[in-house]
Amino acid sequence: DPMSPERKRRMFDLLVQMGFKEIEVGFPSASQTDYDFVRSIITDGAIPDDVTIQVLVQCRPDLIKRTYEACAGAPKVIVHFYNSTSILQRRVVFRADREAVKKIATDGAKMCLAEAVKHPETEWRYEYSPESYTGTELEYAKDVCDAVADVIAPTPDWPLIVNLPATVEMATPNVYADSIEWMSRNLARRDSIILSLHPHNDRGTAVAAAELGFQAGADRIEGCLFGNGERTGNVCLVTLGLNMFSRGVDPQIDFSNIDEIRRTVEYCNQLAVPERHPYGGDLVYTAFSGSHQDAINKGLDQMKVDADAADADVEDILWQVPYLPIDPKDVGRTYEAVIRVNSQSGKGGVAYIMKADRGLALPRRLQIEFSQAIQRITDGEGGEIAPKEMWDAFQQEYLAPVTPLERIRQKVDAAEEDGGTDTITAIVKIDGEEREIVGAGNGPLAAFCDALGAVGFDVNVLDYSEHAMSAGEEAQAAAYVEASIGGKTVWGVGIAPSITTASLRAVVSAVNRAARA
């Protein structure tokens, strides 16, 4: 449905907020809705001093007159007049020869100048489009544009915008760019011309056409947020701007809250933005593939290492993370949605979510083991697994079991000298029966394993790691134990306020998992 006045105003305010300085606000001679909207933003004082509104009009006297009436009182206006010049439209629509069609354009230019005299309070500028430019002979398109420029008589300080629209995208982007280069080199009064592009997306290459056309000599590009427009739409200014940003070029447009921009555009257009639309879709910073997740995880870790080495904040160093061309935070996204786990995911994705969501830096072999458990869940249920479901599975697998062994409390007597023997007295439950066990060893972990050996649990620790999960009064520590128990190699995990208690819980976890294996 066409935008209501309220939705038009929302879109206009968004474009102003983002930093656009020339905004096409409507076709006021085509509908009362557009006419009223243009009047409202003028009379409401909604147009900032540094913004110029642009209005579209065909080269017809009655339409041009009404357009100027709609814009009366505006501080600055670009009047964008156009007529179709293509071979096909000259033949089947206008049934006119070249000279007659060129006269439509020059007469339109004269009418615009004549109406402007009636409204001296406004700073008028002009834009001309040979519509269906891509279906027009190049030499003829140049001839028409030069004739219009002769009427407008632009100067370097008051230039004419010559807009060359791919009204219908009819060829590969390089062909469009070649035509732009030729026009840029051959247009008369080039120093008084702003050469503008207006690519449509019929072949799906509007962004490429715009980028190549700009490199070929254009000065300006017209488009829409998320590529809205006739048929397949206009060039997407979000993609275009953030492509520049990804290469280190500031587009001078504020994309820092891409989700709010998208929500507003979806509301105004009443059209959804696809989940995989570049830069703005829900899934564009999300990896499901296991190898991609692993690379992203390692890339984010390396960014922290590089920042520490440079004594800088991560935000201040060059962004270099595999599969992420820009930092999602630069457009207001978080890392929480960067990695999502389904049946295609591997250990990297599981490890990332456990670290990002729960602060657990799982050792590599534990990553492999737990990711296999997650794989069984996703294979069985289909789809992806949410971080909470993953945490529930982790708790059930590593933290919840209390049989056959449960630790109640312990007392550790540390050795007075380095290298000495620690002793431990622990109260445990074995198959529900509370017992006191005593052991000694090189540290609390070894002492606890010694104590367990006395009651029938032969625990041989193969690997051990620990880390703090958080800081402050409610700090938690995590410990990971890989152990050989009864001929089985298993992992155990413990979480507690103290690292000693966490390590003992990890041993208990391993014992109970071995009993279940």
TrEMBL record:
Enzyme class of the recorded protein, top EC level: transferase
Catalytic activity, reaction form: 3-methyl-2-oxobutanoate + acetyl-CoA + H2O = (2S)-2-isopropylmalate + CoA + H(+)
Lineage: superkingdom: Bacteria
GO biological process: L-leucine biosynthetic process
Family from the record: Belongs to the alpha-IPM synthase/homocitrate synthase family. LeuA type 2 subfamily.
Pathway(s) this gene product operates in, as recorded in its UniProt entry: Amino-acid biosynthesis; L-leucine biosynthesis; L-leucine from 3-methyl-2-oxobutanoate: step 1/4
Protein name: 2-isopropylmalate synthase
InterPro entries per the UniProt record, alphabetical: 2-isopropylmalate_synth_dimer, AIPM/Hcit_synth_CS, Aldolase_TIM, IPM_Synthase, LeuA-like_post-cat, LeuA_allosteric_dom_sf, LeuA_N_DRE-TIM, PYR_CT
PROSITE patterns given in the database record: AIPM_HOMOCIT_SYNTH_2, PYR_CT
Sorted UniProt keywords: Amino-acid biosynthesis, Branched-chain amino acid biosynthesis, Cytoplasm, Leucine biosynthesis, Magnesium, Metal-binding, Transferase
Secretion signal, residue range per the UniProt entry: none
GO molecular function, one term: metal ion binding
EC number, as in UniProt: 2.3.3.13
Pyruvate carboxyltransferase domain segment(s): 1-259
